[in-house]
Amino acid sequence: MPGKAAGVAGGEGDTVAAPAAAGSGEGPRGPLLDDLMPWSVRPLRTGRPWVTAPDAASLRTRWDRLVRASGEERERLFAPTRARTQLSAVAALPGRSGGTGRFARETGPCPEPVRVLHGPFDEQWLLPDHRLIDVARPELWRVADDRQLFLVEHGRVPNDPGLAVSVTALLPDGHSPAGRPGRVRPLYRRPGGLEPNLAPGLLPALRARYGETVTAESVLAWILAAARSSPAGCVVPLPADAARWAQGVELGRELLRLELRGARGTERPRLPGGQRPYVRAAVPPDPAPLSYDAEERVLGLGTGRVSPVPAGAWEFRVSGVRVLELWFERRTAAPGGAAPGPAGLEAVRPRAWLQEWTSELLELITLLALLAELRPRQEELADALSAGPDTGVEELRATGVLPVAEAARRPASVLDHQEEGPDGQFALL
After folding, report:
1. What is the residue-wise DSSP string for 91-134?
2. CB of 23 within 8 A of CB of 319?
3. Residue 354 pLDDT > 70
4. Taken in order 356, 362, 366, 372, is the CA torsion positive or negative?
5. Residue 321, phi then psi, degrees to nearest 5
6. Phi and psi, residue 409, nearest 5°
7. Which of 7, 46, 171, 292 could form a disulfide with 429 if both were Cys (CB 3.0 to 4.6 A apart)?
8. For 143, what's the count of Cα atoms within 13 Å in the CB-facing half-sphere?
9. In what order do the strands lie in the sheet with 298-301?
10. What's the pLDDT tens digit per position in 286-299?
């Protein structure tokens, strides 16, 4: 995100030791994603559910209600945690102009909500105020700009052959719908598309085998096409021949184009004429329950009807969870499970289904349908990689790519801008 960037090199203690590489044995062969893209960041932890929402207007209303409240009511609405209270001294988020004074004194207007990716394929909104977020991962905000892409590693569920990774141009919160949370891996370690987040020496080693056309983005495309979850971690098999590499990169670029959803100059995903989903019966204000008729290819939202909806879109799962059901639930479920007691700010939400959600639903159905159509090609690539020779861990060790230096697993120092510290002071570099 443009604006003030960073003058620090750390990231809230997020450095982790490298796991053991995946070598021979059962399951996919090849190096771990953690070694190919060594700098990774844990998911954001907001600490309070009301700082995110599927619509921006609810966030503005929540903010206004909070800053107008006083005393015990304001404290209750804020929902303090061990990491954040109204008296916490917190620096501004990198690239944002949010307040840095104690929130207890805040009476100003709502900061402009920003679009984020909440879990797999769910574009939501976030209040970009560091005083409201327990663990905001400022190292991600520091490198988020119009050149950055984020690879999101999804939590692994045993015996689930679903998506291992996805990519986004939005700032992702990194949450997985089920299983162990994954990690976020920026493609570049510095703003402006500088210093690829790849193991030192990896690009020269890949170019020596596959040709000079290998770039950071083609490596990202290969990972999208070939990455597989395993008990050892996310594994990325590497082929022995350049033809197989080119095949996988081409497939990965198709996945990348789809998942960017119009960002970075790409076209928004579209199904061919006759296959595009349309609203056949208006979505009602209260659209529950969600249902699917496989024979008619109809998605039901109460009395609302959307069709045609391919079975691949309905059955598309990440970490074992059906994406469309989760997306719908986040827009219709009672906040906090309708727990007894005074309502919190998360109860401030639209009273009826929003028209913009219908448009977003049609786009999500299109995206999932197109991704499902590519799954057979991904499986064919996986079978070919399992059957054929590969460039494995030992080859990368022989060229000096592995083991990865610990410095590559830490955020880079970004010293070209100052950041505002607590109470308006500039952060010391």
Report:
1. PPPTT-----S-GGG--SPPPPPEEEE-STT-EEEE---GGG-S
2. no
3. yes
4. positive
5. -110, 135
6. -90, -5
7. 7
8. 30
9. 278-281, 304-307, 298-301, 290-293
10. 999 999 999 999 99
Cα 247–chain centre separation = 26
Reference 386, options 49, 27, 117, 138; nearest CA is 27
Residues 6+ apart with CB under 8 A from 247: 381
pLDDT digits (tens, 9 = 90+) for 4-22: 333 333 444 444 444 444 4
166's enclosing H/E stretch is: strand 165-168
Instruction: Give the strand order in the sheet containing 184-186.
Output: 165-168, 150-153, 184-186
Radius of gyration of the chain, Cα coordinates, nearest whole angstrom: 23
- With CA atoms as reference, report the closest residue to 327 among 54, 13, 8, 37: 54
**Residue 234's closest CA among 195, 193, 189, 179?**
179
At residue 304, φ and ψ (nearest 5 deg) are -75, 150
Residues pairing with 309 in the sheet: none
Q: What is the pLDDT of residues 356-413, one digit of tens each?
A: 999 999 999 999 999 999 999 999 999 999 987 777 899 999 999 999 999 999 999 8
Q: What is the pTM of this model?
A: 0.90
Residues 6+ apart with CB under 8 A from 338: none
